[in-house]
Amino acid sequence: MEKRDIVQLLHRQNFRLTREREALLELLMRTEKMFTAAEWHALAQQQHVRVGLTTVYRLLEVLTKVGLATPFLVEGSVYYAFCAGQHHHHFVCLACHHVEDLYECPVFHHLPKGCQVHHHKVDLFGICPACQEQSEAGQVTPGPPM
Ligand SMILES: [Zn+2]
Ligand SMILES: [Zn+2]
Ligand SMILES: [Zn+2]
User: Fold this and answer.
1) Domain residues of the chain, as ranges?
2) Which residues, in sequence order, are CB contacts of 125 under 8 Å at separation 6+?
3) Fewer CB in 10 Å around end: N or C, the chain?
4) Which stretches of 89-144 are DSSP H helices?
5) Domain 3-136 listed as CATH 1.10.10.10
6) Residue 115 counted as an annotated binding residue
7) Distance between Cα 137 and ligand 1 center (Å)
8) Share above pLDDT 70 across residues of the chain, in percent, rounded to a whole number
9) Residue 87 has what DSSP assignment?
10) Binding site annotation covers 131?
11) pLDDT at 137 > cutoff 60
12) Rounded CA gap, 47 and 50, in Å?
């Protein structure tokens, strides 16, 4: 999905993109990791995108509503990753919080007979190859990245 279409989708949800909000959206779009709203806010500040925490919450909420962000519940915290394009699933690394999109959908091989499925979610959580290598090398597992 192109940015132009995303901007239109957001407008339809009454979310107007100021220059700063657009910079926040671009940050989300190019980051293949999940962060909590507070972490996204801190990351935005680091990159000199001056938006308030409320705006971060609001954008994440609107993006989730229109299917352009996915919330992940990990150890009691809600993390968000940007999602665009066609139907997919995720592999989420619990060490570095990298989110990989999986475009192969396994679900319909396991459908109970006669059931009509309207939507579904499959997200896999584990440790990515890079983090496995790091822990094998005896290095400290990184905490949530900033
Ligand atoms: Zn996704
Ligand atoms: Zn990792
Ligand atoms: Zn699927």
Assistant:
1) 3-136
2) 72, 74, 91, 92, 94
3) C
4) 129-136
5) yes
6) no
7) 30
8) 95
9) S
10) yes
11) yes
12) 9
